[in-house]
């Protein structure tokens, strides 16, 4: 499964780079942001969030919800991660990534406790 996420990440990065006018679709941004979080690549997630046009952020609540998960990860707020993941009805493109992210952080918190 991880191999599929790695391939999807590469595809999303390529789609962003090749986007007309340098602005990708909201779906590409959402998948890319979620995949960066899954890979615990917080630097790329943060820089992606900064370069997504404000109009796209405002018009796409799922992007904001993904970033809310990212903020909890950044703050190491493990209960908040689960709450943020559970608080949104994810689209079918994002749901598998969020489920994997929840599973990853569940296994990590098992080691911490």
UniProtKB/TrEMBL annotation:
<dbReference type="GO" id="GO:0005737">
    <property type="term" value="C:cytoplasm"/>
</dbReference>
<dbReference type="Pfam" id="PF10075">
    <property type="entry name" value="CSN8_PSD8_EIF3K"/>
</dbReference>
<dbReference type="GO" id="GO:0010387">
    <property type="term" value="P:COP9 signalosome assembly"/>
</dbReference>
<keyword id="KW-0963">Cytoplasm</keyword>
<dbReference type="GO" id="GO:0008180">
    <property type="term" value="C:COP9 signalosome"/>
</dbReference>
<keyword id="KW-0736">Signalosome</keyword>
<dbReference type="GO" id="GO:0000338">
    <property type="term" value="P:protein deneddylation"/>
</dbReference>
<feature type="domain" description="CSN8/PSMD8/EIF3K">
    <location>
        <begin position="25"/>
        <end position="101"/>
    </location>
</feature>
<keyword id="KW-0539">Nucleus</keyword>
<dbReference type="InterPro" id="IPR033205">
    <property type="entry name" value="COP9_CSN8"/>
</dbReference>
<dbReference type="InterPro" id="IPR033464">
    <property type="entry name" value="CSN8_PSD8_EIF3K"/>
</dbReference>
<protein>
    <submittedName>
        <fullName>COP9 signalosome complex subunit 8 isoform X2</fullName>
    </submittedName>
</protein>
